[in-house]
Amino acid sequence: MNAIAARLAWTLTALALWAAPAQASPKAELWPRWTAHDAAATTAIDHRAWDAWLARYLVRDADGVNRVGYGTVSADDRAVLDRYVAALAAERIGGYARPEQMAYWINLYNALTVQVVLARFPVASIMDIKISPGLFAAGPWGKKLVAVEGEMLSLDDIEHRILRPIWRDPRIHYVVNCASIGCPNLAPRAYTAARLEAMLDEAARDYVNHPRGAAIVEGKLVLSRIYDWYRDDFGTTDAAVIQHLAGYASGGLAAKLRSFKRISDYRYDWGLNVAR
After folding, report:
1. What are the residues whose beta carbons fall under 8 Å from the beta carbon of 169, sequence distance 6 or more?
2. Which residue of 62, 66, 143, 175 lies most exposed, with the fewest beta carbons within 10 A?
3. How are strands ordered across the β-sheet holding 214-217?
4. From CA 133, how far away is CA 13, in angstroms rounded?
5. Mean pLDDT, consecutive 10-residue segments, the chain of 276 residues?
6. From CA 186, how far away is CA 179, in angstroms rounded?
């Protein structure tokens, strides 16, 4: 192999490895220490600061995508977000009931994601925020960002070692937001234990019935790549995934899904969910 061919082969290998984390499906691997909870606890965590922040900077675009006005966030409101994340991190989350914990982890994940983007804005995509450890790691998901109960956590830890393995609910994928157009929407209000089930269902319906979730393109069923990356969470076969979609689909989509037995393709838009 001559020098040019060798260099080309190395470059192609490097690019493939760099792209791999975006295409891989992280396994749900339980971190046992986070299973601690108090089923009898009735205390609620205060998420009003996140509610107010979202009300100020989250915009529902005409295309149905919720976008964040990253470029308009004031210094004071950056500090508000920082204080909210710090307040969540200071909680002894093991002392709460399960629904309160789930709402907590979802809100912490979403607030951390916005915080990460704000710290490096402007960027075209969260994939450009290459702070995860590892030479070819993409995005910020592997970076330890916050300490909870003395344990440093990354976004991957929250999603794949806490939320997914503890609750085993596919709707989790509809409520953790990765700051991308292709991702399910960032909710316009904080998740709380009191309205958790309703919000999980609302998020699922919102995404499934939007073209970036499921669409019929030239007679073929095309889905978000989320259903490919996390196939085991939605069903191990095409038929199982389609059955999951049918549980949330409405109108014309619901009727059309009955005629499909297989998924033809997947797609995803990593563009930043920035307000236009």
Report:
1. 200
2. 62
3. 214-217, 220-224, 265-267
4. 19
5. 40 35 74 98 98 98 97 98 98 98 99 98 97 89 98 98 98 98 98 98 98 98 98 96 98 95 98 96
6. 8
The SS3 call for residue 97 is coil
Dig out the tokens for 25 from the structure: 């499906």
Encoded tokens for 128: 């450009």
Beta bridge partners of 271: 125
Rounded Cα–Cα distance for residues 188 and 176 (Å): 13
Q: From 118, 144, 150, select the one nearest 131 (Cα to Cα).
A: 144
pLDDT (0 to 100) of residue 10: 33
Q: What pLDDT shows up at residue 32?
A: 97
pTM: 0.91
The helix or strand, by DSSP H or E, that contains position 216, with its residue range, turns out to be strand 214-217
CB 160 within 8 A of CB 29: yes
Buried-exposed string 139-148: b where 16+ CB fall within 10 A, e elsewhere = bbbbbebbeb
CA-CA distances (angstroms) from residue 49 to 43, 74, 250, 276? 17, 15, 34, 24
Alpha helix ranges (H) inside the chain: 3-23, 48-57, 75-89, 98-120, 155-156, 164-167, 196-208, 226-229, 231-234, 238-246, 251-257
Say how far apart CA 45 and CA 114 lie, in whole Å.
Answer: 20
Angle (nearest 5°) at CA 224 between 177 and 262: 150
Distance, CA of 185 to CA of 169 (rounded, Å): 18
pLDDT at residue number 135 = 81
